[in-house]
Amino acid sequence: MHATASNAGTGVDRAHEASRNAKDSRNDVLFGWVLKACALLVLAALLGAAGSTLWLGSDAFHTFGWGFPTSAAWDPSNDQYGALVPIMGTVGTALIALVVAVPISFGIALFLTEIAPQWLRGPVASAIELLAGIPSIIYGMWGLFVFAPFVAAHIKPWLMNHFSADPPDGQVSWLVQHVPFVAKFFSSEYPFFGAGVLTAGLVLAVMIIPFISSVMREVFQTVPTRLKESAYALGSSTWEVVWDIVVPYTRTAVIGGVFLGLGRALGETMAVAFVLGNTFKFSWSMLETGSSIASTIANQFGEAQGLQRSALMALAFLLFVVTFIVLLIARLMLRRMATKEGR
Amino acid sequence: MGAAQATDITGAGSSFVYPVLSKWAATYAETSGNKINYQSVGSGAGIAQIKEGTIDFGASDAPMSGEDLAKFGLGQFPSVVGGIVPVVNLQGVKAGELKLTGDVLAKIYMGQIAMWNDPAIAALNPGLKLTSTKITVVHRSDGSGTSFNFTNYLSKVSPEWASKVKFGTAVEWPAGVGGKGNEGVAQYVRQIPGSIGYVEYAYAKKNAIAFAQMQNAAGKWVQPTAETFGAAAATADWASAKDFNVIMTNASGEQAWPITATTWIIMYKKSKNPSHSKVAFDFFKNALEKGQPAAASLDYVALPDSLVKKIEAYWASDLGNK
Fold it and tell me: Within its chain, how far is the Cα of B307 from the centroid?
């Protein structure tokens, strides 16, 4: 009886366990589906947004065909639209922002994780996070009232004197006389006017520094102390530890942070609208005024009707395409870098 | 009507009238208890919303065409008058000193007159010392009623502008740089020596930027003031227009400021919501008849009495409201 009881007890336990297992695996499956749904929701939202802008912009695509992304016209009163200048402005400002912001963010992150004394880390880290929380319109106003005049007074004249074919001081520099194409990137019709592609790029850089540096700082902190200390023990300098241990260990996450910044720079609207000059003339120069996709939409959407509205929607769709292409190119470049390193 | 029966009505559209409309609405809410919710989302959006029937009145800086009004069963009338002034940043040139004609202004905006000492400008300003400074043209970068009226004026005075650039809330500007909003244009003009822009009169006055005087259609030199804006509103050709479809730039009056603008209020001829429309009419009746001081304090000009009478007659006959 005793045995039976114990047998029965085990039986009950087994049955209980089996039903628990079944329940667990059912829950696991359910949980898996929920997670999958969360992930797919992002994809669906993205496709939905892209699809609806394509649908609403189809009028413009039909009217202008392939001429739309390659034409520099933007003429609402004659209903002629082309996206070339906004596309160039979007890519140009984002690239300038990235070139400026990535090294600075890298420096900030390294300083905060490796070099800064403990008491300084907290305040600086919070200051950076605060920088990320400032609304873009504030950056736009700061850009318009403070930074653009500063560029006009100090940065632009210097750049034009050294690199342009029509410098304000009248003396064409040695560099411009001997190196072709340089002058192309630094000419400007308005030497005393601060707004332009470069200014917008620099304002964007300030805006994306907090994003990139916060991510970098977080991931630099994940590098095991043992790894770093081993390297120090072998006689490495701080720079060698950073470059050979910290950076390789965190590469993918760092790149993720850079992409986050790039995404913000490509889509930033209000700040750029204030400091880009908003013109639709094609130019290679980074000192000239231009326009970006997002700022054009923000500027003209409220008053746009008919084909103009459709052209703005088509621009929105092109922003998806441009972002996709830029991220794709970045990924391909990284993969090539990785194969070169034999990873 | 007691506060308990207060009706909230909604309107949307032009940002040009927003300051005065909200001031009128505040006074009106105090006296009648009815609230006016106005969203300043831009004229285009205002027209779109009144067509869809989601608001009680729309406001647009450009009049709707007769066809569109008929198609959607709408009527429109002007509300308040404001002036648009050319502003300049020229060393030693004070407000109202520089003289410009419409033709010269159009040539500057087309980039054909590129220097301040151009003979065409010098001939108009014998007393002013104009140096060989490059002219930087500043225009609005966003679609706006201010641009609509400014380019409309240039189209009226320059055949070349009318055929090449035309007019609209946004156009393909032949020259210059674009500032966002009145404040953007004002700021760019302050920053660039030798620049010229155009803003609503209130902005030029508030920011103390030098504006130019203009020659009007009657050939007289006029300064931008409440009187000259009012004169333009009084002498625009309202009589022959159906549904007040007149853009009052280049008005014929001796004293008329040439770039004067209004905002049209758009309402239903047969409202789906008569009680709301009644409140809206009452609001605008109050505003048009007694709103002058509020308008003047914000540098707008109320409509002349003759025009207000015309609008009220239009309400009674066309909009079916007594």
Answer: 16
